[in-house]
Design a protein that fits this description.
The chain is mostly helical. It folds into 2 domains: 61 residues, no CATH class; 70 residues, Lysozyme. It has a two-stranded antiparallel sheet. Strand 1 and strand 2 form a beta hairpin. It is rod-shaped, with a radius of gyration of 25 Å.
Length: 150
Amino acid sequence: MVAGKARRAIRFFEQHRRLLHSKAHGVVARKTLVRARLRLVRAVRQIATLRRAHHAREMRSLQSASPREAICGAFGDNCSEAVDVAWCESRLQTTAQNGEYLGLFQMGTLARHLFGHGSTAWAQATAAHRYFVYSGRDWSPWSCKPPQGY
């Protein structure tokens, strides 16, 4: 791995600084250190680019995810509780409607305005997760609660 090799070279010269000032090895050591730093910068940029591309691919795949996949993607460790709440609220239907309450988590007009809401399961799950976090990671905003909850 390029980044690892560059880091090892930089660490080596940090531990052996005398080589950078040596008459016999100084020129080569400094050039090697500069090249290692440049390689590290390039590698870090490339890694960041790859991570952004991977994240974008994941987001595109989640846009068309099933309600259960979208909920688990948005809620992470709280996946099973969130699925239970969404099942109780809407039977996992993104088009569920009960008066002013819409979607997987039956969010009201104000909550949809504050936390966002879309037509896809992913958009609704992420909006509900924002609401969940805002409420202190608490299921109190919903009529339905997870079985082990309240």
